[in-house]
Design brief:
mainly beta, 6-stranded antiparallel β-barrel, 20 strands
Length: 345
Amino acid sequence: MALERLEFASIELGASTIYSTASNASTYIRVRVDYTLNSNTATVVEDVSGYFGSGSIENGYRLRSPSEFSSPVEITNWDAGTKVLTLDGTAAQTAANQLTFITLPAGKIFIESASFAKVGGSTLNPPNSFNDVTGSDDAEYSSGDKEWGVVGLLASTSSINTGLTGMYGQYIISSFERRNSSTQANIFLTASNTITSFTEEPGYTFVSEQGQSALLLSEKSGSFLNIAGADDITGNQSLGLGSYQNIVASVLSQLTSGSAAFPFTGSAEISGSIDMTGSFSTLLNSSENFLIKNALATTQSLFQIDNEGTAIFRARDGGVSDVPTPVVGGLYFSTSSAFIGVDGV
């Protein structure tokens, strides 16, 4: 059986363009749209050459057309067949063939022309190319496979070309929009709503391609990506270390809440022994019991205290075969008698 390990490499950004909620927001999708006064629907009539077009639109993307909306509106439904957009706002005027910008929502990033790089990459030292990397939403991704993630330098959305030293973000590779070759591809990245270290803090996103030269590319296990030194990846060694400020903080926070450690609220199953020093209280509500069961027959109760304080022992059937081993101080019940273990006279 192969050793469990996290494969990793790098993504070089020298020829790339990063699109996000703030980076290159006006140059991602450009289309021409017909609007109707006070209507929350609009129709795409034409793609604008030189930009991504209507084929790249998805629900949740943001639409900007200043003459019709004072601020960006969300696309709540996109019908690729009829080219009709449903929006969460209504147009301020009727207008035809309006130049319209469509951008990514917060938490989603698109990298155009990402380049694969792996120090010493080969079939014996994978990944060897983007063909060894799969997005979690791609058709070839199988449930149970490790997801892939990336680490990169963050910037404020108000100053997208200026990286913030020491601040790194982690995103999951959700899909490959296109593999131009085995070493160049267009990639979608997505923040997580459930993994703390992969969430995107409001007001921050990846710095633009002008502000960083490479990203760490790594398989993901739970909250964890690989950790790498300067000789392992292209780009700054901090890429291989920066994610751990996110990971360690998120893991430690889980150790003081939820079911990961005491104190916590909820159910838990503990295997092994527990030694406790000090007072121990079991608080029973109206429908709760303190119950000890037979580990070999879990439906069999050995001892119980109900919420009224009544102690209930197991009542044996009274036969010779069901008599427990006698011990001094022992107490057991049959269906018709009670027995106490004492020293013989």
